[in-house]
Protein backbone atom coordinates (compact mmCIF):
# COMPACT_ATOMS: atom_id res chain seq x y z
CA UNK A 1 0.00 0.00 0.00
CA UNK A 2 2.85 2.38 0.87
CA UNK A 3 4.43 1.73 -2.53
CA UNK A 4 1.17 2.57 -4.30
CA UNK A 5 0.72 5.68 -2.17
CA UNK A 6 4.20 6.93 -3.00
CA UNK A 7 4.25 6.01 -6.69
CA UNK A 8 0.89 7.60 -7.50
CA UNK A 9 1.30 10.41 -4.93
CA UNK A 10 -2.03 9.66 -3.32
CA UNK A 11 -1.51 11.83 -0.24
CA UNK A 12 -0.43 14.82 -2.32
CA UNK A 13 -3.61 14.46 -4.34
CA UNK A 14 -5.85 13.99 -1.31
CA UNK A 15 -7.05 10.47 -2.11
CA UNK A 16 -6.70 6.87 -0.87
CA UNK A 17 -6.18 3.42 -2.35
CA UNK A 18 -9.80 2.46 -1.58
CA UNK A 19 -11.16 5.57 -3.27
CA UNK A 20 -8.98 5.04 -6.35
CA UNK A 21 -9.98 1.37 -6.66
CA UNK A 22 -13.69 2.17 -6.44
CA UNK A 23 -13.22 4.98 -8.95
CA UNK A 24 -11.46 2.62 -11.38
CA UNK A 25 -14.29 0.09 -11.15
CA UNK A 26 -16.83 2.87 -11.73
CA UNK A 27 -15.01 4.09 -14.83
CA UNK A 28 -14.89 0.55 -16.24
CA UNK A 29 -18.61 0.04 -15.62
CA UNK A 30 -19.37 3.31 -17.39
CA UNK A 31 -17.37 2.48 -20.53
CA UNK A 32 -17.43 -1.33 -20.68
CA UNK A 33 -20.14 -1.15 -23.33
CA UNK A 34 -17.37 -0.52 -25.86
CA UNK A 35 -16.20 -4.14 -25.66
CA UNK A 36 -19.63 -5.06 -27.01
CA UNK A 37 -20.37 -2.14 -29.31
CA UNK A 38 -16.96 -1.82 -31.00
CA UNK A 39 -16.84 -5.33 -32.52
CA UNK A 40 -20.48 -4.98 -33.56
CA UNK A 41 -19.83 -1.60 -35.22
CA UNK A 42 -16.64 -2.56 -37.05
CA UNK A 43 -18.09 -5.82 -38.40
CA UNK A 44 -21.42 -4.23 -39.42
CA UNK A 45 -20.25 -3.30 -42.95
CA UNK A 46 -19.01 -6.85 -43.43
CA UNK A 47 -22.56 -8.08 -42.97
CA UNK A 48 -23.90 -5.44 -45.36
CA UNK A 49 -21.32 -6.51 -47.95
CA UNK A 50 -22.45 -10.12 -47.40
CA UNK A 51 -19.16 -11.52 -46.21
CA UNK A 52 -19.09 -15.17 -45.22
CA UNK A 53 -20.20 -15.72 -41.61
CA UNK A 54 -16.90 -17.44 -40.81
CA UNK A 55 -14.97 -14.32 -41.90
CA UNK A 56 -17.23 -12.02 -39.89
CA UNK A 57 -16.79 -14.22 -36.81
CA UNK A 58 -13.03 -14.17 -37.32
CA UNK A 59 -12.86 -10.38 -37.36
CA UNK A 60 -15.35 -10.14 -34.50
CA UNK A 61 -12.92 -12.13 -32.34
CA UNK A 62 -9.95 -10.06 -33.53
CA UNK A 63 -11.71 -6.77 -32.80
CA UNK A 64 -13.03 -7.95 -29.43
CA UNK A 65 -9.53 -8.93 -28.31
CA UNK A 66 -8.01 -5.76 -29.77
CA UNK A 67 -10.60 -3.62 -28.00
CA UNK A 68 -9.81 -5.10 -24.59
CA UNK A 69 -6.03 -5.17 -25.03
CA UNK A 70 -5.72 -1.71 -26.65
CA UNK A 71 -7.91 -0.23 -23.92
CA UNK A 72 -5.76 -1.86 -21.26
CA UNK A 73 -2.49 -0.68 -22.83
CA UNK A 74 -3.66 2.89 -23.40
CA UNK A 75 -5.18 3.16 -19.94
CA UNK A 76 -2.08 1.71 -18.29
CA UNK A 77 0.11 4.21 -20.13
CA UNK A 78 -2.18 7.00 -18.95
CA UNK A 79 -1.73 5.64 -15.41
CA UNK A 80 2.00 4.91 -15.30
CA UNK A 81 3.31 7.61 -17.65
CA UNK A 82 0.95 10.52 -16.97
CA UNK A 83 -0.41 9.52 -13.53
CA UNK A 84 -3.90 10.69 -14.48
CA UNK A 85 -7.30 9.03 -13.81
CA UNK A 86 -8.34 8.80 -17.46
CA UNK A 87 -9.20 5.63 -19.36
CA UNK A 88 -8.82 4.92 -23.07
CA UNK A 89 -10.51 2.62 -25.56
CA UNK A 90 -11.50 2.59 -29.25
CA UNK A 91 -13.61 5.70 -29.72
CA UNK A 92 -17.25 5.86 -30.68
CA UNK A 93 -17.68 7.90 -33.83
CA UNK A 94 -14.20 7.04 -34.99
CA UNK A 95 -15.18 3.38 -35.24
CA UNK A 96 -18.30 4.38 -37.19
CA UNK A 97 -16.11 6.47 -39.50
CA UNK A 98 -13.82 3.47 -40.00
CA UNK A 99 -16.71 1.07 -40.67
CA UNK A 100 -19.20 3.07 -42.71
CA UNK A 101 -17.03 5.67 -44.46
CA UNK A 102 -13.67 3.98 -44.90
CA UNK A 103 -14.77 0.39 -45.51
CA UNK A 104 -18.34 0.62 -46.77
CA UNK A 105 -18.28 4.03 -48.44
CA UNK A 106 -14.76 4.25 -49.87
CA UNK A 107 -14.14 0.55 -50.35
CA UNK A 108 -10.89 0.21 -48.39
CA UNK A 109 -10.14 -3.16 -46.88
CA UNK A 110 -10.05 -3.70 -43.13
CA UNK A 111 -6.25 -3.83 -43.24
CA UNK A 112 -5.99 -0.65 -45.32
CA UNK A 113 -8.20 1.10 -42.79
CA UNK A 114 -5.94 -0.07 -39.98
CA UNK A 115 -2.96 1.34 -41.88
CA UNK A 116 -4.69 4.74 -42.02
CA UNK A 117 -5.32 4.60 -38.27
CA UNK A 118 -1.68 3.67 -37.61
CA UNK A 119 -0.43 6.58 -39.74
CA UNK A 120 -2.75 9.01 -37.95
CA UNK A 121 -1.43 7.70 -34.62
CA UNK A 122 2.16 8.18 -35.71
CA UNK A 123 1.28 11.67 -36.95
CA UNK A 124 -0.28 12.44 -33.56
CA UNK A 125 2.92 11.23 -31.84
CA UNK A 126 5.04 13.52 -34.02
CA UNK A 127 2.95 16.64 -33.49
CA UNK A 128 2.86 15.94 -29.75
CA UNK A 129 6.64 15.59 -29.56
CA UNK A 130 7.23 18.84 -31.44
CA UNK A 131 4.40 20.76 -29.77
CA UNK A 132 2.55 21.32 -33.06
CA UNK A 133 -0.78 20.34 -31.53
CA UNK A 134 -1.14 23.76 -29.87
CA UNK A 135 -0.85 25.48 -33.25
CA UNK A 136 -3.38 23.16 -34.87
CA UNK A 137 -5.84 23.40 -31.99
CA UNK A 138 -5.57 27.20 -32.07
CA UNK A 139 -6.20 27.25 -35.82
CA UNK A 140 -9.52 25.38 -35.71
CA UNK A 141 -12.43 27.65 -34.73
CA UNK A 142 -14.26 26.63 -31.56
CA UNK A 143 -17.59 26.46 -33.40
CA UNK A 144 -16.23 23.86 -35.81
CA UNK A 145 -14.78 21.83 -32.93
CA UNK A 146 -18.17 21.72 -31.25
CA UNK A 147 -19.92 21.03 -34.57
CA UNK A 148 -17.67 18.04 -35.25
CA UNK A 149 -18.60 16.50 -31.89
CA UNK A 150 -22.32 17.17 -32.36
CA UNK A 151 -22.29 15.93 -35.94
CA UNK A 152 -20.68 12.68 -34.90
CA UNK A 153 -23.44 12.34 -32.31
CA UNK A 154 -26.10 12.68 -35.01
CA UNK A 155 -24.27 10.18 -37.21
CA UNK A 156 -23.93 7.61 -34.43
CA UNK A 157 -27.59 7.97 -33.48
CA UNK A 158 -28.61 7.51 -37.13
CA UNK A 159 -26.56 4.33 -37.35
CA UNK A 160 -28.20 3.07 -34.14
CA UNK A 161 -31.67 3.75 -35.56
CA UNK A 162 -30.75 1.78 -38.68
CA UNK A 163 -29.11 -1.12 -36.85
CA UNK A 164 -32.21 -1.48 -34.70
CA UNK A 165 -34.46 -1.58 -37.82
CA UNK A 166 -36.44 1.41 -36.50
CA UNK A 167 -35.33 3.33 -39.60
CA UNK A 168 -35.29 1.27 -42.81
CA UNK A 169 -34.40 1.87 -46.49
CA UNK A 170 -37.12 3.38 -48.66
CA UNK A 171 -36.88 3.23 -52.46
CA UNK A 172 -38.79 6.49 -52.86
CA UNK A 173 -37.49 8.82 -50.14
CA UNK A 174 -34.28 7.03 -49.12
CA UNK A 175 -35.18 6.08 -45.56
CA UNK A 176 -38.36 5.94 -43.49
CA UNK A 177 -39.82 4.62 -40.25
CA UNK A 178 -40.40 0.86 -40.14
CA UNK A 179 -44.00 -0.18 -40.88
CA UNK A 180 -44.78 -1.88 -37.58
CA UNK A 181 -48.18 -3.09 -38.87
CA UNK A 182 -46.84 -5.02 -41.87
CA UNK A 183 -46.58 -8.76 -41.04
CA UNK A 184 -43.95 -9.19 -43.76
CA UNK A 185 -41.53 -7.29 -41.53
CA UNK A 186 -42.05 -9.45 -38.44
CA UNK A 187 -38.32 -10.03 -37.88
CA UNK A 188 -37.53 -6.33 -38.23
CA UNK A 189 -40.48 -5.40 -36.02
CA UNK A 190 -39.20 -7.72 -33.27
CA UNK A 191 -35.75 -6.12 -33.48
CA UNK A 192 -37.18 -2.60 -33.48
CA UNK A 193 -39.49 -3.26 -30.53
CA UNK A 194 -36.65 -4.76 -28.48
CA UNK A 195 -34.44 -1.77 -29.34
CA UNK A 196 -37.13 0.71 -28.32
CA UNK A 197 -37.60 -1.11 -25.01
CA UNK A 198 -33.83 -1.05 -24.56
CA UNK A 199 -33.71 2.67 -25.30
CA UNK A 200 -36.38 3.27 -22.66
CA UNK A 201 -34.45 1.16 -20.14
CA UNK A 202 -31.21 3.05 -20.77
CA UNK A 203 -33.01 6.37 -20.59
CA UNK A 204 -34.53 5.49 -17.22
CA UNK A 205 -31.20 4.27 -15.83
CA UNK A 206 -29.39 7.42 -16.96
CA UNK A 207 -32.11 9.70 -15.58
CA UNK A 208 -31.89 7.84 -12.29
CA UNK A 209 -28.07 8.31 -12.43
CA UNK A 210 -27.35 4.59 -12.13
CA UNK A 211 -23.64 3.85 -12.60
CA UNK A 212 -22.88 1.82 -15.71
CA UNK A 213 -26.27 2.72 -17.23
CA UNK A 214 -25.30 1.93 -20.82
CA UNK A 215 -23.73 -1.44 -19.99
CA UNK A 216 -26.63 -2.44 -17.73
CA UNK A 217 -29.04 -1.32 -20.44
CA UNK A 218 -27.34 -3.54 -23.03
CA UNK A 219 -27.54 -6.53 -20.68
CA UNK A 220 -31.20 -5.86 -19.86
CA UNK A 221 -32.10 -5.43 -23.55
CA UNK A 222 -30.36 -8.69 -24.40
CA UNK A 223 -32.57 -10.45 -21.84
CA UNK A 224 -35.66 -8.71 -23.22
CA UNK A 225 -34.73 -10.01 -26.68
CA UNK A 226 -35.02 -13.67 -25.59
CA UNK A 227 -38.84 -14.05 -25.81
CA UNK A 228 -38.82 -12.02 -29.04
CA UNK A 229 -36.38 -14.46 -30.67
CA UNK A 230 -33.90 -11.64 -31.20
CA UNK A 231 -31.28 -12.92 -28.74
CA UNK A 232 -29.65 -16.18 -29.87
CA UNK A 233 -27.69 -18.61 -27.71
CA UNK A 234 -26.23 -20.81 -30.45
CA UNK A 235 -22.77 -19.22 -30.04
CA UNK A 236 -22.61 -20.50 -26.45
CA UNK A 237 -22.68 -24.14 -27.58
CA UNK A 238 -19.28 -25.62 -26.77
CA UNK A 239 -17.93 -22.15 -25.98
CA UNK A 240 -14.34 -21.86 -24.79
CA UNK A 241 -14.26 -19.47 -21.84
CA UNK A 242 -10.52 -18.95 -21.96
CA UNK A 243 -9.27 -16.03 -24.09
CA UNK A 244 -8.89 -17.09 -27.72
CA UNK A 245 -6.35 -15.60 -30.08
CA UNK A 246 -5.52 -16.07 -33.74
CA UNK A 247 -2.26 -17.51 -35.05
CA UNK A 248 0.63 -15.32 -36.18
CA UNK A 249 0.14 -16.45 -39.78
CA UNK A 250 -3.52 -15.41 -39.70
CA UNK A 251 -2.56 -12.12 -38.11
CA UNK A 252 0.00 -11.28 -40.79
CA UNK A 253 -2.32 -12.30 -43.63
CA UNK A 254 -5.61 -10.83 -42.43
CA UNK A 255 -4.99 -8.23 -39.71
CA UNK A 256 -1.58 -6.55 -40.00
CA UNK A 257 -2.09 -3.01 -41.41
CA UNK A 258 -1.74 -2.94 -45.19
CA UNK A 259 0.41 0.15 -45.69
CA UNK A 260 1.24 -0.81 -49.26
CA UNK A 261 -2.43 -1.22 -50.10
CA UNK A 262 -3.21 2.17 -48.57
CA UNK A 263 -0.61 3.82 -50.79
CA UNK A 264 -2.08 2.05 -53.81
CA UNK A 265 -5.65 2.94 -52.85
CA UNK A 266 -7.75 2.61 -56.00
CA UNK A 267 -10.79 4.65 -54.96
CA UNK A 268 -10.01 7.14 -57.74
CA UNK A 269 -9.11 7.02 -61.40
CA UNK A 270 -6.13 9.30 -60.84
CA UNK A 271 -3.00 9.08 -58.72
CA UNK A 272 -3.64 12.54 -57.24
CA UNK A 273 -7.19 11.52 -56.42
CA UNK A 274 -5.94 8.50 -54.53
CA UNK A 275 -3.37 10.59 -52.67
CA UNK A 276 -5.94 13.17 -51.59
CA UNK A 277 -8.30 10.38 -50.59
CA UNK A 278 -5.70 8.92 -48.25
CA UNK A 279 -4.76 12.36 -46.90
CA UNK A 280 -8.43 13.11 -46.23
CA UNK A 281 -8.83 9.87 -44.27
CA UNK A 282 -5.75 10.50 -42.13
CA UNK A 283 -6.67 14.14 -41.47
CA UNK A 284 -10.18 13.12 -40.42
CA UNK A 285 -8.87 10.47 -38.01
CA UNK A 286 -6.28 12.85 -36.58
CA UNK A 287 -8.55 15.86 -36.13
CA UNK A 288 -11.44 14.00 -34.53
CA UNK A 289 -9.12 12.10 -32.17
CA UNK A 290 -7.21 15.23 -31.21
CA UNK A 291 -10.23 17.39 -30.40
CA UNK A 292 -12.09 14.57 -28.70
CA UNK A 293 -9.10 13.82 -26.46
CA UNK A 294 -8.27 17.42 -25.60
CA UNK A 295 -11.92 18.20 -24.89
CA UNK A 296 -12.22 15.16 -22.63
CA UNK A 297 -9.01 15.90 -20.73
CA UNK A 298 -9.87 19.54 -20.10
CA UNK A 299 -13.59 19.01 -19.47
CA UNK A 300 -13.31 16.12 -17.03
CA UNK A 301 -10.10 17.52 -15.54
CA UNK A 302 -11.94 20.72 -14.65
CA UNK A 303 -14.71 18.78 -12.92
CA UNK A 304 -12.12 16.87 -10.89
CA UNK A 305 -10.25 20.01 -9.89
CA UNK A 306 -7.13 18.79 -11.67
CA UNK A 307 -6.51 21.97 -13.67
CA UNK A 308 -3.90 24.48 -12.51
CA UNK A 309 -4.44 28.22 -11.97
CA UNK A 310 -4.07 28.86 -15.70
CA UNK A 311 -6.74 26.32 -16.55
CA UNK A 312 -4.25 23.78 -17.90
CA UNK A 313 -4.11 20.08 -17.11
CA UNK A 314 -0.77 19.04 -15.55
CA UNK A 315 1.12 16.50 -17.67
CA UNK A 316 -1.27 17.01 -20.56
CA UNK A 317 1.52 16.37 -23.09
CA UNK A 318 2.06 12.98 -21.48
CA UNK A 319 -1.67 12.26 -21.62
CA UNK A 320 -1.76 13.15 -25.31
CA UNK A 321 1.29 10.98 -25.95
CA UNK A 322 -0.42 8.07 -24.19
CA UNK A 323 -3.43 8.59 -26.46
CA UNK A 324 -1.29 8.72 -29.60
CA UNK A 325 0.69 5.60 -28.70
CA UNK A 326 -2.52 3.73 -27.83
CA UNK A 327 -3.98 4.61 -31.24
CA UNK A 328 -0.89 3.31 -33.01
CA UNK A 329 -0.74 0.11 -30.95
CA UNK A 330 -4.49 -0.40 -31.35
CA UNK A 331 -4.16 -0.25 -35.14
CA UNK A 332 -1.58 -3.02 -35.12
CA UNK A 333 -3.78 -5.08 -32.80
CA UNK A 334 -6.79 -4.72 -35.08
CA UNK A 335 -9.06 -1.89 -33.97
CA UNK A 336 -9.94 1.65 -34.93
CA UNK A 337 -8.64 4.80 -33.22
CA UNK A 338 -8.15 4.62 -29.45
CA UNK A 339 -9.10 7.80 -27.61
CA UNK A 340 -9.58 9.14 -24.09
CA UNK A 341 -13.10 8.46 -22.82
CA UNK A 342 -15.46 11.08 -21.47
CA UNK A 343 -16.81 8.26 -19.27
CA UNK A 344 -13.64 8.69 -17.23
CA UNK A 345 -15.66 11.41 -15.55
CA UNK A 346 -17.74 8.71 -13.84
CA UNK A 347 -14.71 7.49 -11.90
CA UNK A 348 -13.45 10.99 -11.32
CA UNK A 349 -16.82 11.90 -9.80
CA UNK A 350 -16.26 9.03 -7.36
CA UNK A 351 -13.02 10.65 -6.19
CA UNK A 352 -10.44 9.24 -8.63
CA UNK A 353 -7.53 11.65 -8.96
CA UNK A 354 -4.46 9.61 -9.92
CA UNK A 355 -3.22 6.91 -12.25
CA UNK A 356 -4.18 4.22 -9.75
CA UNK A 357 -7.77 4.68 -10.89
CA UNK A 358 -6.65 3.94 -14.44
CA UNK A 359 -4.65 0.87 -13.36
CA UNK A 360 -7.80 -0.70 -11.93
CA UNK A 361 -9.77 0.07 -15.09
CA UNK A 362 -7.00 -1.42 -17.26
CA UNK A 363 -6.93 -4.66 -15.24
CA UNK A 364 -10.69 -5.03 -15.65
CA UNK A 365 -10.34 -4.67 -19.43
CA UNK A 366 -7.88 -7.58 -19.43
CA UNK A 367 -10.30 -9.70 -17.35
CA UNK A 368 -12.99 -8.87 -19.90
CA UNK A 369 -11.18 -11.14 -22.39
CA UNK A 370 -12.73 -14.08 -20.56
CA UNK A 371 -16.32 -13.09 -21.40
CA UNK A 372 -16.05 -13.28 -25.20
CA UNK A 373 -18.74 -16.01 -25.55
CA UNK A 374 -21.28 -13.91 -23.68
CA UNK A 375 -20.54 -10.88 -25.85
CA UNK A 376 -21.19 -13.01 -28.91
CA UNK A 377 -24.88 -13.54 -28.08
CA UNK A 378 -25.69 -9.84 -27.70
CA UNK A 379 -27.89 -8.77 -30.67
CA UNK A 380 -27.69 -5.55 -32.67
CA UNK A 381 -31.03 -4.58 -31.13
CA UNK A 382 -29.28 -4.38 -27.74
CA UNK A 383 -26.26 -2.35 -28.89
CA UNK A 384 -28.26 0.01 -31.13
CA UNK A 385 -29.84 1.87 -28.17
CA UNK A 386 -26.32 2.43 -26.83
CA UNK A 387 -25.38 4.15 -30.08
CA UNK A 388 -28.45 6.36 -29.86
CA UNK A 389 -27.72 7.26 -26.24
CA UNK A 390 -24.06 8.08 -26.99
CA UNK A 391 -25.31 10.22 -29.88
CA UNK A 392 -27.57 12.12 -27.49
CA UNK A 393 -24.70 12.72 -25.09
CA UNK A 394 -22.40 13.96 -27.86
CA UNK A 395 -25.08 16.38 -29.10
CA UNK A 396 -24.58 18.43 -25.93
CA UNK A 397 -21.81 20.24 -27.82
CA UNK A 398 -24.50 22.10 -29.80
CA UNK A 399 -25.11 24.45 -26.87
CA UNK A 400 -21.60 25.84 -27.30
CA UNK A 401 -22.11 26.79 -30.97
CA UNK A 402 -22.77 30.43 -31.81
CA UNK A 403 -25.83 30.42 -34.06
CA UNK A 404 -26.44 34.17 -33.80
CA UNK A 405 -23.74 35.02 -36.36
CA UNK A 406 -24.47 33.43 -39.72
CA UNK A 407 -20.79 33.30 -40.67
CA UNK A 408 -20.32 31.02 -37.66
CA UNK A 409 -23.63 29.18 -37.91
CA UNK A 410 -23.46 28.09 -41.57
CA UNK A 411 -20.13 26.19 -41.44
CA UNK A 412 -21.14 24.58 -38.13
CA UNK A 413 -24.51 23.49 -39.50
CA UNK A 414 -22.98 22.10 -42.69
CA UNK A 415 -20.49 20.12 -40.61
CA UNK A 416 -23.26 18.59 -38.48
CA UNK A 417 -25.77 18.00 -41.28
CA UNK A 418 -23.42 16.43 -43.80
CA UNK A 419 -22.19 13.74 -41.41
CA UNK A 420 -25.46 11.77 -41.13
CA UNK A 421 -26.88 12.83 -44.50
CA UNK A 422 -23.76 11.85 -46.46
CA UNK A 423 -23.02 8.93 -44.12
CA UNK A 424 -19.51 10.29 -43.69
CA UNK A 425 -17.80 12.07 -40.79
CA UNK A 426 -14.99 13.15 -43.12
CA UNK A 427 -17.40 14.79 -45.56
CA UNK A 428 -18.95 16.77 -42.72
CA UNK A 429 -15.54 18.00 -41.56
CA UNK A 430 -14.57 18.89 -45.12
CA UNK A 431 -17.80 20.81 -45.72
CA UNK A 432 -17.35 22.91 -42.62
CA UNK A 433 -13.70 23.66 -43.38
CA UNK A 434 -14.57 24.74 -46.93
CA UNK A 435 -17.45 27.05 -46.05
CA UNK A 436 -15.81 28.67 -43.02
CA UNK A 437 -13.25 30.73 -45.00
CA UNK A 438 -15.83 31.46 -47.73
CA UNK A 439 -18.31 33.18 -45.40
CA UNK A 440 -15.54 34.88 -43.41
CA UNK A 441 -14.06 36.38 -46.59
CA UNK A 442 -17.53 37.52 -47.67
CA UNK A 443 -17.98 39.29 -44.33
CA UNK A 444 -14.62 40.99 -44.56
CA UNK A 445 -13.05 38.87 -41.85
CA UNK A 446 -10.51 37.03 -43.97
CA UNK A 447 -7.72 37.85 -41.52
CA UNK A 448 -9.57 36.04 -38.73
CA UNK A 449 -9.14 32.74 -40.58
CA UNK A 450 -5.94 30.91 -39.69
CA UNK A 451 -3.72 30.02 -42.69
CA UNK A 452 -4.04 26.34 -41.78
CA UNK A 453 -7.79 26.55 -42.44
CA UNK A 454 -7.17 27.95 -45.93
CA UNK A 455 -4.74 25.11 -46.66
CA UNK A 456 -7.20 22.47 -45.43
CA UNK A 457 -10.06 24.05 -47.38
CA UNK A 458 -8.07 23.89 -50.62
CA UNK A 459 -7.07 20.29 -49.93
CA UNK A 460 -10.67 19.29 -49.29
CA UNK A 461 -11.89 21.04 -52.47
CA UNK A 462 -9.25 19.21 -54.51
CA UNK A 463 -10.27 16.01 -52.79
CA UNK A 464 -13.90 16.40 -53.93
CA UNK A 465 -12.78 17.25 -57.45
CA UNK A 466 -10.40 14.31 -57.75
CA UNK A 467 -12.06 11.74 -55.51
CA UNK A 468 -15.85 11.96 -55.69
CA UNK A 469 -17.90 9.86 -53.28
Please state the oligomeric state of the protein chains shown: single chain
**End-to-end C-alpha gap:** 57 Å
Q: List the strand order in the largest sheet.
A: 1-4
Largest sheet: 2 strands, antiparallel
Beta fraction of the residues? under 5%
Whole-angstrom Rg = 22 Å
**Whole-number mean pLDDT:** 84
Unreliable residue runs: none
SS field, number of helical segments: 21
How many strands appear in the DSSP assignment? Answer: 4
Order of helices and strands: HHHHEHHHHEEHHHHHHEHHHHHHH
* Overall helicity: 55-70%
Global morphology: globular
Secondary-structure-based class equals mainly alpha
Question: What are its keywords?
Answer:
single chain, 469 residues, mainly alpha, two-stranded antiparallel ribbon, two-stranded antiparallel sheet
Write the layout of secondary structure elements.
Blueprint: H1 2-7, H2 17-31, H3 34-48, H4 53-80, E1 88-90, H5 94-105, H6 110-129, H7 132-139, H8 142-163, E2 167-170, E3 174-177, H9 186-207, H10 213-224, H11 248-254, H12 259-263, H13 271-303, H14 316-333, E4 338-340, H15 344-349, H16 355-367, H17 372-376, H18 380-394, H19 406-422, H20 425-442, H21 451-466
Antiparallel strand pairs: 1-4, 2-3
Helix pairs in contact: 2-16, 3-4, 3-5, 4-14, 4-16, 6-13, 6-14, 8-18, 8-19, 8-20, 9-10, 9-18, 10-18, 13-14, 13-21, 19-20, 20-21
Amino acid sequence: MNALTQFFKLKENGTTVKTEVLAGITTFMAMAYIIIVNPATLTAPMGIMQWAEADINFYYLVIFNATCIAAAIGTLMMALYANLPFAQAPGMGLNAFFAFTIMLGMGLSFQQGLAAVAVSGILFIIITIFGLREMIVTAIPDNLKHAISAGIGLFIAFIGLQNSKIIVPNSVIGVSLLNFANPEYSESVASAVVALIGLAIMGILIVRKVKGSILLGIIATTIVGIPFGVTRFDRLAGANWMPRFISMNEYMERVFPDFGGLLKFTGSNTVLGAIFGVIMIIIAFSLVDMFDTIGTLIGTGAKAGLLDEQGKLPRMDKALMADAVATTVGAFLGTSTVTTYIESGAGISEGGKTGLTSVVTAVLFILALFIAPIVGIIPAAATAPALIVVGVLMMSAVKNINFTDFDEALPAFITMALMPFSYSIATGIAGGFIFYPIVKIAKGKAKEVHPIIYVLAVLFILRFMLLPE
